[in-house]
Amino acid sequence: MLLATLGGLAAAIWAFGSTGFGSVIAVAGRIGFAGFLIYCLYSIGVFAILGGAWLAVAPGEPLDRLGRFTWARMVREAVSDLLPFSQIGGIVVGIRTLTLHRMLASRVYASFVVDLTTEMAAQLVFTLFGLAMMVSMLVQGGNAVALRPLILGGTAVMVAVMVMFFTAQRPALGLAGRIAQQFLPGSVMAMTGITDEMRRIYGQPRRTALGFALNLAGWTATAIGSWIVLLMMGVHISIWSALSIESLIFTLRSVAFAIPGAIGVQEAAYALAGPLFGLPAETALALSLAKRARDVGLGLPTLLAWQFGEARAVVRDVRKVSGGRQSLPEIPAE
């Protein structure tokens, strides 16, 4: 992961260096503070959609817990984007955030697996849409040909991963249960609980379909957010071009899951893909910079609040242990 991160940093330096960092900053500055605030608020709305997708595949959880699922999704993204972890680290922390709210652990784990599956399926649909939009340019040759391996290769990887994820969910849980049985007493009951919850979720296809639809809406809304940012910068491109660009960026970011925040991958992709849609490289990188600034603007307060919540949980557990010790009856001395 360290080597991948260093490679990503080198790609980011190349992208900004070859374009001119000053020109990128000049374009990004057009959005202004008010525009940046609007973008952050819009992104919070997108997180609510994604939180709703997770809640939709968690049977038994009331609608008033949408805020908790939205918060868990925000923590997951903040950890993945800002901390030196891969996306897997963000996933672990996001799940823990829900379990700290005294939610049934087996339901949290099972609903996450289903939510991740529907999220990947929705991203695949969105990527194939962007790929279809770019087919005409790919067959025309020119600079677009250089992106053919990235687009087709990234889509193929996504398809393969999604198929493996769909087919291996239950066998993987069974294998994990057998391994854990050798080391962790009671783990079989936990794995059985997760399997039962997954069976319950998949037994309600309407919930799974709703989760897929909301995840697809989340991907689309994120891309529309980038189009809005470009408009606030004074750049006018069609919304279809913006959706196509973002579908490519999302695909490459997913393939580069081992690199924290996909650093460098996002910047290089914008620098290469932007000009194909009439978007100058400095403008495309300004959009990338705005997205990074949004990640920091939302991510830092999220991480601070997450750490505060973790500290409160530790204090609460310590008090429980201390209270339990004080309540123990004294044993009279002989």
From TrEMBL:
Protein name, UniProt field: Lysylphosphatidylglycerol synthase domain-containing protein
Superkingdom field: Bacteria
NCBIfam families: HpnL
Major localisation: membrane
Keywords: Cell membrane, Membrane, Transmembrane, Transmembrane helix
Membrane topology: Multi-pass membrane protein
Keyword Iron-sulfur attributed: no
Transmembrane residue ranges: 36-57, 78-100, 120-138, 150-168, 209-231
InterPro entries registered for this protein in UniProt: L-PG_synthase/AglD
UniProt organism field: Sphingomonas oligophenolica
Protein location: Cell membrane
